[in-house]
Amino acid sequence: MINKINKKVLYREILDYVMIAVGMLSYAIGWMVFLLPNHIGNGGVAGLASILNWGQGIPVANTYFVLNAILLAIALKVLGLKFCIRTIYGVVMLTVITKVMGTVFP
C-alpha cells in the first residue's frame, strides 16, 4: 500500500516538473520569436530583461536569471523551500531555453 502511494506521489512530482518545462518552452518561444523581435514589452522580470536588451544589448537570459535570483533569495524566507525549488527549476529552464534559442534566432 505504501509503495503504491509513493509511486503515485513520485509520478505526480515528475509530471509537475515536465509540465513546468513544457510551459517554459512555450513561454520562451513566444518571447523570443514574437515579442522581442517586434519590440513588444511584457511585464515583470521578463519585461525588464527585454528593455535592458533593447537599450543596452544585455542578453535577456542573463538579465532574467540575475533578477530572478535576487527575488528568489527574498522569496525563500517568505514562501518556503518547496515553492522556491519549483520556481528555481522554472527560472533555470527558461534561462537555458532562451540561451539556446538566442543562438538559433539571433
Automatic annotation (TrEMBL):
Source organism: Acinetobacter johnsonii
Keyword Flavoprotein: no
Membrane topology according to the record: Multi-pass membrane protein
Family matches, as PANTHER family: UPF0750 MEMBRANE PROTEIN YITT, UPF0750 MEMBRANE PROTEIN YITT-RELATED
Transmembrane segments: 14-34, 54-76, 88-105
Pfam families linked: YitT_membrane
Protein name per its UniProtKB record: YitT family protein
GO cellular component: plasma membrane
Top-level taxon of the source organism: Bacteria
Subcellular localization, as worded in the UniProt entry: Cell membrane
UniProt keyword annotations, A-Z: Cell membrane, Membrane, Transmembrane, Transmembrane helix
Organism ancestry: Bacteria, Pseudomonadati, Pseudomonadota, Gammaproteobacteria, Moraxellales
